[in-house]
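Quiz preparation item.
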């Protein structure tokens, strides 16, 4: 029996856990208690054996190392966030586990690093105008910058700290220090604080070209140095000037054979150079006037994988593990379209909420702590409530969503 180690970082990972256990894998599950969805998850998690609850996300790193020293595992299922990738690469290298290794990690550890590789490989990327050192103010603005531009942390993920900037004055304001801390999100800088929207992820900031076009996410895996593109979905955002994700829709309406081949040819060069093998990956691209721009990459599973569960494929996780551990090709079975979309509620504290047509949804998650947050990354799907919907086609999805949203009655305090 194969022993798998998994960190459960959200409600969406429950379906992964059920899938792996149902397919006979021996699963040890680490759960950080400080995750916002812990209370939502704990009743279901109590049904499983081998649950390890830690108080904070940071503590799970120590437990992870302890478990690996005392028990033989065949795989660490890659639910980990990008900022823990170095540790996972070290563990995989030390114990010779499949997945990202240190030699590959050094080539994909931050956007600044792999953007240069992409450019060297003649892969289109948004132009980087300027790099601002971590938590530094911006005193000199490059004359190359064209507005609007985009600012984002080189080591960030999940749209945190990303904003579209329209002027030189706004750009300086984004990087300035302030005297008063008004929100827990604000990072300390000496005796002062960074602005509310700034989030460094302990990395430098990129000021880059803003490309206004649809974003498509590509999910795939590498098996014995052979690349497979498993599925494509669209990422939507309606939170300008923020880039927070507000909807994921499968399948991508921009997918076609030419798009597939274009992505695959470019990715094969990148995968060969980085020496990634026997691991999943996610890639985000922007489509603009027929050109494909690479913008984000990580050697882990994507939250978009859970769209497949509502499209008829309930075994993506176990198929991925079986493919990697047993050298088997993976075939997906999807028969429906699916979406994950925010509830579109206005900011505020919720006194009561009623959804009269909840039957239209496959799953509904209400806002965390009955609070709809203000803009910035808080407009992202997970925090402000979301719905999973499946349908026969994309028009069916949108019709169900609109009917469900129109049935929501909210009373604010």
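Solution:
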């Amino acid at each position: 029996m194969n022993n798998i180690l998994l960190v459960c970082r959200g409600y969406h990972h429950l379906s992964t856990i059920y899938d792996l256990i149902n397919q006979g894998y021996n699963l040890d599950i680490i759960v950080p208690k400080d995750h916002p969805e812990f209370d939502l998850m704990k009743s279901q998690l109590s049904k499983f054996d081998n649950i390890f609850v830690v108080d904070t996300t940071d503590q799970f790193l120590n437990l992870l190392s302890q478990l690996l020293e005392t028990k033989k595992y065949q795989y660490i299922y890659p639910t980990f966030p990008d900022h823990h990738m170095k540790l996972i690469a070290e563990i995989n290298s030390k114990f010779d586990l499949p997945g990202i290794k240190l030699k590959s990690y050094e080539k994909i550890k931050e956007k600044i690093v792999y953007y240069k590789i992409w450019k060297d490989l003649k892969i289109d990327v948004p132009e980087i105008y300027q790099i601002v050192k971590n938590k530094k103010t911006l005193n000199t603005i490059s004359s190359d910058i064209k507005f609007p531009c985009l600012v984002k942390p080189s080591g960030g993920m999940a749209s945190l700290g990303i904003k579209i900037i329209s002027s030189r004055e706004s750009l300086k304001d984004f990087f300035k220090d302030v005297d008063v801390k008004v929100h827990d999100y604000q990072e300390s800088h000496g005796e002062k604080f960074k602005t509310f929207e700034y989030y460094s992820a302990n990395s430098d900031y990129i000021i880059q070209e803003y490309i206004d076009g649809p974003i498509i996410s590509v999910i795939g895996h590498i098996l014995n140095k052979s690349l497979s593109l498993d599925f494509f979905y669209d990422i939507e955002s309606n939170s300008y000037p923020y880039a927070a994700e507000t909807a994921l829709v499968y399948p991508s309406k921009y997918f076609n054979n030419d798009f597939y081949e274009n992505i695959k040819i470019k990715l094969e060069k990148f995968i060969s150079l980085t020496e990634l093998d026997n691991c999943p990956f996610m890639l985000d691209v922007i489509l603009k006037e027929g050109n494909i721009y690479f913008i984000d990459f990580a050697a882990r599973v994507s939250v978009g994988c859970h769209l497949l569960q509502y499209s008829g494929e309930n075994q993506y996780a176990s198929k991925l593990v079986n493919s990697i551990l047993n050298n088997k090709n993976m075939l997906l079975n999807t028969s429906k379209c699916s979406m994950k979309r925010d509830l579109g509620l206005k900011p505020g504290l919720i006194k009561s909420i009623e959804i009269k047509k909840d039957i239209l949804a496959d799953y509904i998650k209400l806002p965390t702590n009955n609070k709809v947050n203000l803009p910035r990354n808080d407009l992202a799907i997970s925090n402000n409530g979301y719905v999973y919907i499946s349908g026969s086609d994309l028009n069916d999805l949108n019709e169900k969503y609109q009917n469900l949203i129109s049935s929501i009655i909210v009373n604010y305090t």
